[in-house]
Design goal:
Blueprint lengths: L5 E2 L10 H12 L4 E2 L4 H12 L3 H5 L3 H20 L3 H7 L6 E2 L1
Parallel strand pairs: 1-3, 2-3
Keywords: ATP-binding, Cholesterol biosynthesis, Cholesterol metabolism, Cytoplasm, Kinase, Lipid biosynthesis, Lipid metabolism, Nucleotide-binding, Steroid biosynthesis, Steroid metabolism, Sterol biosynthesis, Sterol metabolism, Transferase
GO molecular function: ATP binding; phosphomevalonate kinase activity
EC number: 2.7.4.2
Length: 101
């Protein structure tokens, strides 16, 4: 994986339009140039694999996800404590485009 030429970080409150802006940037720059990287999906996928859970069900707003929310939080805090770069490495895994959002 080559280092990106540009990294844009979007932050904001829930429902503030972060995903919309990220997708708009990818649309304008093109998918060969711009990768939209997210933390939530890759981390939930890792958590599901490690705990034998249904990854797809962790992605929706279901009671299933709520059942495991506190476990996911504790798992994430432990990962960050033992390996501060874990979240970033997980998010950028496989990204080859020169612009990361």
């Amino acid at each position: 994986m080559a280092a990106p030429r540009a990294v844009l970080l979007l932050s904001g409150k829930r429902k503030s339009g972060k995903d919309f802006v990220a997708e708009e940037l990818r649309s304008r720059l093109g998918p060969d140039t711009c990768a939209v990287l997210r933390l939530s999906g890759p981390l939930k996928e890792r958590f599901a694999k490690e705990h034998g859970l249904d990854f797809q069900r962790l992605l929706d707003a279901s009671a299933y996800k709520e059942t495991y929310r506190q476990d996911m939080i504790r798992w994430g805090e432990e990962k960050r404590r033992t390996d501060p770069g874990f979240f970033c490495r997980t998010a950028v895994e496989g990204a080859a485009q020169p612009v990361w959002v």
